[in-house]
Amino acid sequence: MYRIGEKEVEAVRKVIESGQLFRYHKGRTAERTRRLEQALARKLGVKHALAVSSGTAALITALAGMEIGPGDEVIVPGYTFISTALAPLAVGAVPIIAEVDESLTLDPADVERKITRYTRAIVPVYMLGLPCDMRSILRVARKRGVPVVEDAAQAAGGSYRGKRFGTLGRVGILSFNHFKIITCGEGGALVTDDTDLYQRAFIYHDGGCVFFNEEARRQPSFFAGVNYRVSEIQSAVMNEQLKRLDGILNRLRRRKAAMTEELLERDGFRPARCNEPEGDCATHLPLLFDTADAAAAFVDKYRRRTPMFRPIDTDRHVYTNWEPILRKRPRHPKMNPWKWARRDIRYGKDMCPQTLDVLARTVCLQVPLEPTVREVRSTARSLD
Ligand SMILES: *Cc1c(COP(=O)(O)O)cnc(C)c1O
Question: For residues 257 and 254, what is the distance between their CA atoms, to the nearest angstrom?
Fold first, then answer.
């Protein structure tokens, strides 16, 4: 969360006073959610946006919309929030964990090695707002005929070669939870140009939508879904947050550029490789050190001066801490995606050594939004 205030308070007040808190009104999507979905689709440049209750719900809905299920494999990076790896399990598929490279995002070469004839999706994740190597990932995906699902939960508004994150593959997802760039506490969205996928996602995200939505009632292929609906309160907040998005990104980018400039002037600092500096959300500045000890020492020395962390120390974002997955613990013994898999899936803490090495040698500085550029510069200068 960066900015939230009077505009959001006023928007929520109006929703509550109107008495229309529900996603549907008279057989159609209600005003705030309709506006949000239209604005999001327009801003990102896609045909369809579906607002849902969380980023995780958006991931699961995207996979359901692609008809992914038992026997299927989904490739995810070993550095991402655990949700990315849990989502395939929720639809009966299994996550296959691939390396990240020095850009902290999915390593296209390892993706190619891990594709099997059961791979049904590749999920690049824009961790810390950083761009993935989409050119290489899309090339591998096209060559092997596997669709790409972009997890832009931490990267709303970023772009790669002129296209916003989430719109380069078959389908993309965003999260609006408290910690993301724009937020309504909990929420998410799926974006796609694929109308069939969108319609299946719509049906899946609201198993009861025939009650309220005349369009869905006309769908010939109605099937069993769940409830990941948003409320008009969430959408009202998100309409205001969306208006703030580009301003937030511009401020962050100016501050990150100043920090980078200060640090690069001196020896000993190497910014991590960035796949697309222009489209980077600029929420973080990753620095790559020669050794894990040097990175740890830097954090110890300076973390009180400005917020920073080593990705290796971020618990559920690192695959070695994904206990339910590494131990293959399904929710119910008879609903076990690993038993439904068409080959023996093996996990181990040592399966992505490159990922662990990079995460241990990297220090991510948080880019602050509120201080002036001059203040940000002077803090960066003090990290010697
Ligand atoms: C936050 C996050 C999610 C899940 O979003 P929720 O809204 O918390 O469910 C998925 N993937 C990544 C990379 C995230 O950071």
Answer: 5
